[in-house]
Amino acid sequence: MDRAGKTLFQSNYLTCMKSMNKNKEDIKSISHLLVCNENRELIIMEASGIKIKKSIKLPSVGVFIETSGLYDIDGKIFVACRDGKIYVIKGGALTNQVYDIESKPVGMVYLDKSIVVASMNNVVSSYYGKGKKNYSIYMPCPITNIEKMLMMRTKAVNAILVGLNNGEIRMYNDKYLITTIKTDDVIMGMRFGTFGREEGSLVINFKHGGLSVKMLQRQANLSVSTHKPGPSVKQDIPLKIKLFVELTQRERDQAVEMHRLFQKDL
Question: Which residues are within 8 A (CB) of 54 and not within 5 positions of it... i.e. 6 or more apart?
Answer without folding.
Answer: 43, 44, 92
